[in-house]
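[job 4471] stage=fold_predict status=RUNNING
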Amino acid sequence: MRAPSSVPIWRWTPPTSADFAKALAYAHQATVERRAQLKAANGLGDTGTGFTDCPRSAAAELAHSLRIEAEMALRLGDLPNARLPRKKPCGS
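[job 4471] inference complete, writing structure tokens
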């Protein structure tokens, strides 16, 4: 049976501030995890995370997480959290 032509199969809705808040939470969690991976790759953490062979890759992933986190904070008007961190991301 076909759907009636007056009923859309899907409809795009613009993102809301709640969507950006969720994205910010996910990006922040990714940043925390990637910082831990980079610390471990540099021998600053307690456990290895599989990035010991490619710390540049881990640093690139962290930079991407920070960019996404800042972009979502900007969309929410959270300017203090959208600024770049003042300390080095790996903590050294």
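[job 4471] summary: The radius of gyration is 19 Å.
[job 4471] exit 0
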